[in-house]
Amino acid sequence: MNGISAALLSFMAGKDERAIFALEKILEDESVLSWQFTDGMCALIAKLPDRKVVRHFAEKYPLKFAGALVPYIFDGSEDPDLILEWLGARRAEWVTLQEIEKEKNGKARLPFPDTNPWDPSYFQALFKAGRLEEHLGSLQKTVQNAQETHSLRDAALWEYLDIARRFRGQIKLELDWIRAFPPSQAGTLIRVSETLCSLQETQTALEFALLAYEHPVTEVEVQQIMYFSSMMLTEEMAKRHFERHVLHHIAECFLAAEQPEEAQKWMLREKEFAEKHGLRVAFQFAGRVQSFSGQYVVENEIQEEEKTESLNSPEYWLKRMEYYAGRGADCEAELENACFKGLKFGETPQRQWFLRQLADHWYRKGEKKKVTDLLCTELRTMPKGSLSYQSAVWYMIDSTRDGILDLSRPELWQVLAEMENWQFSGERLIRRMVECALEEDIQALGRRPRSLEETKGERFREVTARIGELADRPERAAYWGWVLDRKGEPQAGVPFLELGMRSKDEQIAACAAFTLMEVRAKLGEWEKAELLLPAASKHLTLREKKDWFGRIAEGARKAGASDVAERCERKLKNLGRY
């Protein structure tokens, strides 16, 4: 029997020692990819009442859990010195283990910056014990000790600043001393400089940024940039991206230091560097810098370019839009004009950016109706498959922007009716529509609702009924049933989920079956939930299958449905070993 299955059954039976043995067995089996079961094991270990057992697993299998057990290590009754000693040992052990991994895999494959999962808990324990300042003093001595290696001093400085950032407002630190101890490498200089900027230590941040400009980026740093980049980079490209980032950060530092003329100089250097190496120019940043410097070099270049054929390309109006977006409130008319000009080109790859910039601009000004009109026009006039059409849909259903979704607009319902499949954007749209209906009902109520049911008034019933009429095919019904369940209407979602299970798309059918199984379990219909397990299993990992067999067995036994419980327990035992 699989170790997770055995552990789960043992735990359910109250046999903690057997559960621990089963978990250790799978962790020590080198043929098993234990990372597949980490979440399930952590959840099970966290339920064990003895915190010493949890610490045992964290000590014995540090790499396999990688700090995932941190929230469950202590219950608050332990001696503070014990907590500090234990966390300190785990933290030091992690560093040693990472050094071993570094030798195996090469330095470039380590995270940049290195992260220790035990740091937050250890720092918090130091703070609670009143020993954080003592630790900071030790770090400061390491940084100032010229006999230590550069790497150790750099690591100590980064940890010092990391603590300063985490406990900003809780402890007061003087950071002037750091100016005399700059890091040794360009990448660390920039990272430290950025942190100092966030701590308002602008002058030191600026000095370190200028030092980074003088330091060539090392081969190891280049490899790290390549490894962690979101796009494929050659070594040469990685160097160029880093060098450009340094120039940009220096300009940012001069802006923060209220030296706009110097910021202008470094911004122009960055622009020239980007153009020389085929990188995208940061026109919005250029606009922001020139709004402070009063030197409109980039603006003059853009306006001069208007006299050429560039005037007839969306690319030109995109850079113009970005520049005036950076200039801010002084250039609102120019920003709107650039957006309108760009939109006149019809369906282009750039259209989505004009649309979003104009919508953002009006939203910030509180002109929400204009935003709704803009988006509805886009939905009415652009092809469904275009990027701008999709952007309009996503912008409208963004939950961080209230007041944009207008349930009375026919375009909204037309979008929903034209979607063959309500996956992704369709599901988000119907969910937001229900939320808006609930908000309207709460406003109509005129007081704070006393219960969830009180929030579901006439508008809620009207909107859900109308969406339900459109959910007339499996590819729509599956997601409408899911939304109804999440909005506290599980019983109403049952017929839609049953329809969703008839979808020819296996994934949609399995998702509908899984949601329906959740609903049946929620309603206490354990036998019906059990019958759905085969269909729902297509949507589940092996670990999730075992979890659901156990959950239904436990619920059925409590409800007195012993036959269901026994069948599920037998199936749980019979699951193969993987």
Number of helices: 30
Which H/E pattern describes the elements?
HHHHHHHHHHHHHHHHHHHHHHHHHHHHHH
Please count the beta strands (DSSP E, at least 2 residues each). Answer: 0
Task: Tell me, rounded to a whole number, the average pLDDT.
Answer: 88
Structural write-up:
By secondary structure, the protein is mainly α. It has a domain at 346-400. Helix content is 69%, strand content 0%. The chain is built from 30 helices and no strands. The protein has helices at residues 3-12, 16-27, 38-47, 51-60, 62-65, 80-105, 119-128, 132-144, 150-166, 186-198, 202-214, 219-228, 235-256, 260-276, 283-293, 297-305, 314-327, 332-343, 351-364, 368-381, 387-396, 410-418, 425-445, 458-470, 474-486, 490-500, 506-522, 526-536, 542-558, 562-574. Helix 19 (351-364) packs parallel to helix 21 and helix 20 runs antiparallel to helix 21 (387-396). The longest helix is centred in the first third of the chain and has 26 residues, at 80-105. The radius of gyration is 30 Å and the shape is flat. The termini are close together. Mean pLDDT is 88; it is low at 108-113.
Care to give the gist of this entry?
The chain has 578 residues and is mainly α.
Topology:
Elements: H1 3-12, H2 16-27, H3 38-47, H4 51-60, H5 62-65, H6 80-105, H7 119-128, H8 132-144, H9 150-166, H10 186-198, H11 202-214, H12 219-228, H13 235-256, H14 260-276, H15 283-293, H16 297-305, H17 314-327, H18 332-343, H19 351-364, H20 368-381, H21 387-396, H22 410-418, H23 425-445, H24 458-470, H25 474-486, H26 490-500, H27 506-522, H28 526-536, H29 542-558, H30 562-574
Helix pairs in contact: 1-2, 1-29, 6-7, 8-9, 9-10, 10-11, 10-13, 11-13, 12-13, 13-14, 14-15, 15-17, 16-17, 17-18, 17-19, 18-19, 19-20, 19-21, 20-21, 23-24, 23-25, 25-26, 25-27, 26-27, 27-28, 28-29, 29-30
